[in-house]
Amino acid sequence: MDLINISEFDSSHDLLLPPFMSHIDVDKSVHRHEERHRKIREQLPRQPNYSMRSELKRLKTHWAQDPLSGCSPKELASAGFYKTGLENSCQCFCCGLVLCRLSISPTPLERHKKFNPSCAFIQGKDAGNIPIYDIRVQPKEIDPIDVKVSMENEQTRLQSFTCWPVYASIKPCELAETGFFFTGTGKMVKIDVKMDGAKYRTILEENLLESAKDLRLGQKFVFQQENDPKHKAKSTMEWVTNKRIQELEWPSQSPVLNPIENLWKELKTAVHKRSPSNLTELELFAKEVWARISVFRCTKLIETYHKRLAAVIEEKGGATKY
Ligand SMILES: [Zn+2]
């Protein structure tokens, strides 16, 4: 999309001059203005400016520079535009489109749509906009993805970033190129012997802190496990205490409270769909599907947690729809 060589003059609206101005050469004048506008656009950076994600911050730029502007500052700010400081121009924080004319009609939003319909903000995507009166829009939950290729493929890794926030300073292509993919879950481990207390502790030792590190949780995470005898073995409890891991107190026999059950179900369905024909495939598919459960799916489960809790209390510990 060429955002430099655009004309903000619309012949049907702008070129009708009253008779006393008939001596003005309209075409020449418009051309002169367009040239000036083009020079302004060329001087401004063309990438998104996420420091202007806040509508209020954008509004303040209009108030500061031009409190009596012919164009409504509120309309400009809510259409994504902040004042650049170059003459009267203002720019979209998301796509970098520059408007140089303060015409009331068409509105800034209409002009934004006209000149760059592909702007993520205009398309209603999560472009990081922070509206004045609303809390941030929650990212849409993505559908479970049918995993066809492993994460060894750069293109597949890139696809894992579907819901990556556009305002993050590092770009998905840079991350995918260097081997990263976007994930919401910790490590999944294959257990090939009978699980007992000692094996469970080894699994924790080898994976829990590493998962916390991978997910960038720092020291602030709370560990949740059910009251299985293996989980509650003395040696396991000692290990948890020694590592200063904060553990969540957990009621007995309450799988409905545990969000992991939802993820297990999704995992089973997705792996089953791919019909693994041997144990190696089963492990591979399970790990792939697990790795691609999005961070937003996990967030969603946590967000709805209070409803789940209320339902259990309501049913006095009996069956709920969850
Ligand atoms: Zn835009």
Which small-molecule species are bound to the chains here? zinc ion
Radius of gyration (Å): 28 Å
Strand content: under 5%
Spans of at least 5 consecutive residues whose pLDDT stays below 50 are: 134-149
Per the principal axes of the C-alpha atoms, what is the gross shape? elongated
Number of helices: 13
Mind explaining what this structure looks like?
This is Tc1-like transposase DDE domain-containing protein. Pfam families: BIR, DDE_3. InterPro entries: BIR_rpt (IPR001370), Naip (IPR028789), RNaseH_sf (IPR036397), Tc1-like_DDE_dom (IPR038717). Residues 209-282 form the Tc1-like transposase DDE domain. Helix 10 packs across helix 11 (279-291). The chain is elongated and about 95 Å long. The longest helix is centred in the first third of the chain and has 18 residues, at 26-43. Helix content is 41%, strand content 4%. It has 13 helices and 5 strands. The strands form 2 sheets. The protein has a 3-stranded antiparallel beta sheet with strand order 1-2-3, with helices on both faces. A hairpin with a 5-residue loop joins strand 2 (90-92) and strand 3 (98-99). The relative contact order is 0.08. With 322 residues, it is mainly α. It binds zinc ion (ZN).
